[in-house]
Amino acid sequence: MAQASTIAEIKSQAQHKMDASIAALKTTLSHIRTGRANPGLLDTVHIEYYGTVVPLSNVANISVLDPRTLSVQPFEKGMGAKIEKAIRDSDLGVNPASMGDLIRVPMPPMSEERRKEMTKIVRHEGENAKIAIRNLRRDANEHIKKLVKDKHASEDEQKRAENDIQKVTDKHVSDIDALIASKEKEIMAV
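Structure tokens predicted for Ribosome-recycling factor (190 residues):
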């Protein structure tokens, strides 16, 4: 954390970094497979394009055909076979099928055991995000204590600031709980 000179700056930085942690968790959760088709699932697939490895979304349009099927439409005619191979070789466990220029990617149904594994992964990611939020709270409180020690703030201001930071922390932790609960519900829906 860059050295903030006021309590307001410390609180603002903590809030901003906690918001960034929530955004990172949302991104991570969007890549975790549920039984439903989601274009974000193919974000990890990369393909060689004129000697450069690029994300699949740079060479094709990815969309949802129905709740269990993604469609991949290459921007160039000759890319279909390469794209299909890259998706098949990925660790997603999907089996794409070409239909002319369009590649269909059906999502296989997940077993009950696999769903439970996925919820454990989701909970683990949520716990990591909570740890990050708590670390940010600790860092902010330490910076405030340093301001008081250096006589740039009073102890009353310190108490108020620590209470404010705790409220922000509690709000972010409850946001994480809501995201996790929502993702678990999505995973367990058959």
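The chain has four helices and six strands.
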